[in-house]
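Project standup — Tuesday

K.O.: blocked on the structure for the chain from last sprint. Re-posting the sequence here as requested.
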Amino acid sequence: MSLRAGKRITALAGAAAVLVVLCAAAVWWFNRTDDTPYALAASPKVSVVYEGERPPEEVRTFLTVFVQRLANGDVKGIDELHDGYPDGTAVTQESSDFLSPLAAAAADGPVTARTEPVRDNRPILQRLKSPQGGTSEAELTLTGGKHLHIQLAREHGVWWGYALAPTG
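H.V.: unblocked you, prediction finished:
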């Protein structure tokens, strides 16, 4: 093998290595999970107590942010918590009618939460295309025995959810 052929092999191996690194970076970039697009505020302080099995940290953070915004009367902020909900077109942003009266009950005392285990019933191809998905539900009990049911969905590792209007 000549010196020229050896240099070509080395150059091709280097180019292949760079291509592998670029492909790996592209896969990481498109499958990464961004930080949760919502955060706890400094106030008001709220307490969420869990009955039964404690949910994952991300679900606890979501529910605490939800209760905090509810206690603060921030219905528009609560509506933002379902902006990333998969197939969110069915979610209406008319929650102020039934959430506004619950603000005082959320602020008055500890909120008790019972959550369902996280499940991912999507077809395997959808799971491969969009990893870190899943659904869950939470039942919140506010001061005075008022209840609030929340549908939860995880998309790319970030939890979103919305409150269902009470029946009756």
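K.O.: great, moving the ticket to review. The domain at 48-164 is CATH 3.10.450 (Nuclear Transport Factor 2; Chain: A,). The longest helix spans residues 3-31.
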